[in-house]
Structure formats: structure tokens, C-alpha cells
Amino acid sequence: MVNIDELIPHRPPIRVITEALEIEELFGRARVVVTKQWPLCDGLAASTMMLIEAIAQTAALVEGFKNKQKGKAGVKGWLVGIKSAEFYRAQIEVGADLIVEVKSLYSFEDYAVIEGEVKDRQDVIVKAVLQAVKFEGDHPVNQQQGA
Questions:
Q1: How many structural domains are present in the chain?
Q2: Does residue 42 lie within any of the structural domains?
Q3: Domain holding 38: CATH number?
Q4: 113/131 Cα distance (integer angstroms)
Q5: Residue 16 sits in which domain range?
Q6: What is the mean pLDDT of each run of 10 residues along the chain (147 residues)?
Q7: Is residue 103 part of a domain?
Q8: Which of 36, 51, 87, 105 could covalently link to 118 via disulfide, CB atoms 3.0 to 4.6 Å apart?
Q9: Which region, left, alpha or beta, applies to residue 116 given φ > 0 means left and ψ of -120 to 50 means alpha?
């Protein structure tokens, strides 16, 4: 079983992925169970906007797994933006058991484009394409200005 905490920096309540189901070089599948503790949840249902976060975290899981295989630490320091998204529901009920699948469309140095889909059984709830930029180590964004 994969230890999610070793691969991604997210912790509850913002960590929404529950279990890593499959991780490959350019593909990942994770399980997500909607809880009352999720951000954007009114106690009965959560906004499907949270599924964008689930897609991003599943992509981070894949990157963290690849880093671990190379003897490095998990993933941190990615800024993610939505390139496109299609929402087929406004909300998802607390207790919903969902599957998130991601695949890398392409990447170049510190930039990547990821396609993701979230399903409730066979029904697609969200499809999205995300862009991610890595900000780690000596990247100029992480350096402090000298006096």
C-alpha cells in the first residue's frame, strides 16, 4: 500500500485523496471519498470545484512516486492552474466514493500539462486539463531579495 503522506505535502482537511490505486510513469488512479470536513462542503454535499483539487493531488501523487523511485523526497512547490474544465454536476454528496484518473499530456523541465477525470461509478463528474509549474529549490520565486 502506498503511503500518500510520503508523496504529497497535502494534509487533511485539504488532502482529499483517500487511497492510491494505481501509479505509473505517466498515469495515476486514486480513490476519493467526500467527507463533511472538505473545504466547500455544507455538511451534506461539497462543490465539484473540490474535484479540481483531487485531480491536482492525484497528479502530485504520480510525481511524488516518481521522485521516491529516484531516492528523492515527495512532491511540493507546484502552482496549478485550470486550462479547461467541464463540470457535469454542481455538487457531490458526502460519502460519495469517487475515482480520479490523471495522465500526463506533456511536460518540459518545470512545466507540465495534466488531463484528469473524476467518475462516480461510470458517470463522469468532472473533466479538466491542468497546467502545473514547479517552484522548488533555487527557483527565483523561492529566493528572498537581498537588502
A1: 1
A2: yes
A3: 3.10.129.10
A4: 5
A5: 4-142
A6: 85 89 95 95 96 95 86 78 97 98 91 96 95 70 43
A7: yes
A8: 51
A9: beta
